[in-house]
Amino acid sequence: MAMTSLADALSTLLAQVDSTPVTEWVSLEAASGRYAAEAPHAALSVPPADNSAVDGYAVRVQDLPAVLAISQRIPAGTAPIALEPGTAARIFTGAEIPEGADAVVLQEDTEQVDEGVRLPGARAGQHIRARGVDIQAGQQLVAAGRCLQPQDIGLLASVGLDAIRVFQPLTIAILTTGDELREPGTGDLAPGEIYNSNRFSLAAQIRALGMNVLDIGNLPDQPERIGDALERAAAVADCVITVGGVSVGEEDHVRGQIASRGTLNLWKLAIKPGKPLAFGEVRGTPVFGLPGNPVSSWITFALVVKPWLIKRQGGVVSAAPRFAVRSGFELNRPCTREEFLRVSFAGSGMTMRVTLTGSQSSGVLSSLSEADGVAVIAPGQTVSEGDWLDIVPISALLSPEVA
């Protein structure tokens, strides 16, 4: 099977997503991190009436400048009465503007005198937050498919909503394979063993998307046990993700088991790191097989699996942002695949550069942990110091809002 470009793989995979998730109503307290199944609209304007942006005095512009008597006091939450002409109303931040007033004079710009308060001139609308300046009645608040963020929860509450219909989170079964893997906390390593980092990293990436993890654990490199585990996981999960066993070695059995117990639709991406990625289905359940090297696993999940999961969840898939930064390193050997280099930022403003975080080997997880972003290098491209590079922030590769 020939290597597939990242763009072609994403286009094909996303076009085939069957996105029919179940919905449910949840309170706003439980809605953060969930994907909206509706696009709620505001039933009222925010603010519902003109209000003061500062502590000061509500006045009629035509009465200023002057010394005016104070005719009323208006704390926030108190309904005002109409402003008497030729007077000022003491008003506090957030309080409703009285009928007849058309400006607020900042408290610090006034002077208390025996007759009342001395006020300078003012312009109409000064320090007044107009009705509906934040939200207009009938306005859409959030789009269907948005992963609700804390600021969205506040927005919904500001129009009086206390619940929203969301998609039920997907359940993702994960399993790792490898005789060499040992679980952290189970003792010292024997010769030839390594700790299983992929199981923890993958679970964390899935939970960051607001989805549930069904951890099948680690399996030895035995074809029948791997195949049986795939079938068990496929029977109870919305998607199965494996790590390891998808390359061309004699002990790589996952790809073969996907093919023999279901269908294999994709294998080998034209990217570095992450070439040996597999996709197919077992018992009608989608299965992603990620490469075993920890950086390859992390990158392929972020670039391929995450967008697929977000769309399957009912979310809106938006392209991860890229921005141009000058290179602080050289790359003289071009790669035949699209390459994603781990980089960190140095300097600021016009002097900002990106530098490599260390070894770019797909087994060096520390260089990913230290990275601020990844530099996207086209096939055949070389890099000289000072060249402009496209950078995708690490935060974007983790965010449930972009893919």
Description:
The protein has about 400 residues and is α/β, with parallel strands linked by helices. It has 4 domains: about 5-20 and about 170-315, MoaB/Mog-like domain (Molybdenum Cofactor Biosythetic Enzyme, Chain A); about 30-45 and about 135-165, Molybdopterin biosynthesis moea protein, domain 2 (Alpha-Beta Complex); about 50-130, Beta Complex (Molybdopterin biosynthesis moeA protein, domain 3), CATH 2.170.190; about 325-400, MoeA, C-terminal, domain IV (Beta-clip), CATH 2.40.340. It is built from 8 helices and 24 strands. The strands form 6 sheets. Strands 6-3-5-4-8-7 form a 6-stranded mixed β-sheet, with no helix packed on it. The chain has a 6-stranded mixed β-sheet with strand order 14-11-15-19-18-16, sandwiched between helices. The chain has a 5-stranded mixed β-barrel with strand order 20-22-21-23-24. Helix 1 (about 5-15) packs parallel to helix 6, helix 3 runs parallel beside helix 6 and helix 4 (about 225-235) packs across helix 5. It is elongated, with a radius of gyration of 29 Å.
What attributes does this structure have?
403 residues; elongated; 24 strands; Molybdopterin biosynthesis moea protein, domain 2; single chain; Molybdenum Cofactor Biosythetic Enzyme, Chain A; 4 domains; 6-stranded mixed β-sheet; alpha/beta; Molybdopterin biosynthesis moeA protein, domain 3
The biggest sheet amounts to: 6 strands, mixed
Number of helices: 8
Number of strands: 24
Helix content: 10-25%
